[in-house]
Amino acid sequence: MLTPGEAVQALSRLGVATATEPVPVSGGWSGAGLWKVELPERFCLLRVYSAAGEAGARREARLLDHLEQFEFPAQRVVACGVAAQAMLLLVTWLDGRGLEVELLNGGDPRELGAAFGKLQAWLHQLEVPEGLPDALTWPAAEAYPEALLQLLEREAATDRRIVHLDFHPANVLVDGGGLSGLIDWTNARAGDPRFDIARTYLLLRLLPGLGPQLKARYLPAQRHFISAWHTAYRREAGAVSGIAPFLAWAGYGLIYDLERKPAESLSPAAAAELARVFEWLSGRLDRWMAGTGLDPGVVDASMKGVR
After folding, report:
1. Domains of the chain, with CATH numbers?
2. Which of 7, 131, 250, 275 could be cross-linked to 2 through a Cys-Cys bond (beta carbons 3.0 to 4.6 Å apart)?
3. Would you say the pTM of this structure is higher than 0.85?
4. Do 172 and 125 form a contact (C-beta atoms < 8 A)?
5. Helix, strand, coil % (nearest 5) of the chain?
6. How far apart are CA 153 and CA 292, in angstroms?
């Protein structure tokens, strides 16, 4: 982690002059240090990675450059490169607050859910840039049963699209009553949109990063938000079918991801919440796997059927 002074020096080596010292920003599980940086003409967000994160940061920068041609609401790249033995990605600052904050403060779940669904449908209509990795084995091939991967290789659409794989309310910003942008593209891959839809459903249903007190405030709006998201997505992009193997994929991937969170960093309440997530997922994975057709005589499940 760089100090503010080191961050200023690192940016200067990339040709970026700052007006004030960077201010640390909290948020995200990507392992990158986050700083709010004031330039003479605008505010930016600086993401500082270890040297090992260089390939991922450069991939994210290329993707953000690609999205700019479609005028998709995302950050724009200001600078990207290695300095002070760290990988730096400097992007424009997006105004607004997380959509989940808007929900928790009384925002209309139907209106916000519809906007959320339209934004995801728009993303899934965009062409994939060259070099974006495949979604199938994210976050790691070892997370999934081999039979499921083989099935998904057959079932996944060959017309691949950009899938965010962290599309949830905390990563969608709201400003002035409208959506101002989608952030945190660390997980983004190329693949069948159902990979993204299935993972979003689980994140909306389980809210693994939201504490018990905040979750209690969200639950009254949850059903309306999910329904509005699904309806708006279907209206923009068409019906979603054959979702069962993708739900199983999302379930295994989420378990794999969460199991790697450092146990010592969890509060007792967070540990209990994580146990609840594991219990919920394990109770449904058998159903979703059965719905893949890997077990004879079991029909496919739909998104509506598992809600």
Report:
1. 4-92 (3.30.200.20), 97-306 (3.90.1200.10)
2. 7
3. yes
4. no
5. 50, 15, 35
6. 13
